[in-house]
Amino acid sequence: xxxxxxxxxxxxxxxxxxxxxxxxxxxxxxxxxxxxxxxxxxxxxxxxxxxxxxxxxxxxxxxxxxxxxxxxxxxxxxxxxxxxxxxxxxxxxxxxxxxxxxxxxxxxxxxxxxxxxxxxxxxxxxxxxxxxxxxxxxxxxxxxxxxxxxxxxxxxxxxxxxxxxxxxxxxxxxxxxxxxxxxxxxxxxxxxxxxxxxxxxxxxxxxxxxxxxxxxxxxxxxxxxxxxxxxxxxxxxxxxxxxxxxxxxxxxxxxxxxxxxxxxxxxxxxxxxxxxxxxxxxxxxxxxxxxxxxxxxxxxxxxxxxxxxxxxxxxxxxxxxxxxxxxxxxxxxxxxxxxxxxxxxxxxxxxxxxxxxxxxxxxxxxxxxxxxxxxxxxxxxxxxxxxxxxxxxxxxxxxxxxxxxxxxxxxxxxxxxxxxxxxxxxxxxxxxxxxxxxxxxxxxx
Length: 445
Ligand SMILES: [Zn+2]
Prior knowledge:
Blueprint: E1 3-12, E2 20-29, E3 32-38, E4 48-51, E5 55-59, E6 61-66, H1 82-96, H2 99-115, E7 118-125, H3 134-145, E8 148-154, H4 168-181, E9 188-193, H5 202-215, E10 218-223, H6 227-237, H7 241-247, E11 255-259, H8 265-274, E12 277-280, H9 282-287, H10 295-300, E13 305-307, H11 320-335, H12 343-357, E14 375-379, H13 391-397, E15 404-409, E16 412-416, E17 419-420, H14 425-443
Helix pairs in contact: 1-14, 2-3, 2-14, 4-5, 7-8, 11-12, 12-13
Zinc ion binds near residues 65, 124 and 258.
C-alpha cells in the first residue's frame, strides 16, 4: 500500500457541515482517505507528496446519468426536441455503430469525464447489438480508463426503435451474466432497468425489481422526462410514470429516477415515501426543451438528489461544473428567487447526493477519513477564479471543467497536470474522429 500526502490546498470536504479547510492536508493510504486536517500533517513519511497550493481539493464529481454510447452523435440533431432528436439523429447513429465504435465511445467519454473531474459515472447504455456481447467489452473499456462506473444495462422488451428490443428472457440472462462477471471489481458495478417507461411491459419492470433484489444491484430509470412520457405511460396503464412505477414495485432506496421534470404532488409524495433517488440533468433538460424539474419541491420533500450531465449528445459536454451552475441558475430564473437553489447545495448534489443515490453515501463523495480516495485538484491560479473570497461560490459559478488539474480515483492518480496516466488520450481522439465520420456515413447522415 502506498501513502500519499496532498497538502497546501483549500479543501471543500462536502461533509455534513460542508466544512472548508484552508491550507489543509489529506493523507491517502491505498484507496482510502485516512487523515484530513489543516496546516502540517503530524508525520512526514509518505511515498508521494502532492503540492496543492492555490488549488481547490474536492471530492470527485458523480455524474449520475450519462450515455457515453451516444458520444459519436455529439452535435447531430441539434435544436430538436427529445423524441425528434432521437429519431432523426441518435437512433440512426447508434444503429450504425460497430462494436469497436462502442468501445471507443466508452474510452473517449471516460477521458472527457475524468478531465472534467468526474470520478464516477452512471453509464446508461443503449445499444442495437446486445447479442454480440458488446456490453461486456464496453464495461471492460470503462474499467481500463481508471474511472469508477455504474454500468446500467437498460433496454426494453416491447416498443422502442427497431433493432433495440430484447426479449424478457434475454434481458434477464444477459444482465445476470454481466452482474456475475463484474461482481468483484473494485470500481465497476452493474445496474439494470428498462430504458424508457413507455417501452417495456409491466412484466419487464417486475423482472427488474426481482433481479435488483436477488443480485443487490441498482435500478436506473428515465422518468417523467417530458410531458409525452406521462402521456405514453398513461395510454398504456392509465397512470402517471411515477404511479406506474409505484404499482410495479419499482420505487425504493435502490432506485434512481432520472430527470423527474414533470411530476404531480402525488408523484413527489410517492418518491419521498419510498426513499427513491432523483437525478437532475438541468443542462440536458434545457437543450432538449424538456422543462424544469421542481427541485425546490423535491428538496422540501427531503428527497435525495444527484446531478448529471446526461449524454455527450444532449448536453453537449460532460462538464459537471457547468451543470452545477445551470442547476442553480435555472431555479433562480423560474422562481425569481436568488436563493431558490444555492451554490453550496448544488455542490452537495454533485458529490454526496450522487453518492447516496448509488448506495455509497457513507463511503464516497466526501473528503473525510474512512472515505474512498476519489479526489480532484482544481487550479485556481487563473484570471476567472481570481480573487477567490468564497471557494464554493467560485467553484460553482466561476470554475470550468478544464480547470481540473489532477484526478485521483480509488487512490490512483489517473490524471496529473491534465495528462491521463491510464490510456493514450491522443490515440483515442484520432481513432474516434475517424470512426465517428465512418459511422455517420453508414447512418446516411
Ligand atoms: Zn438519458
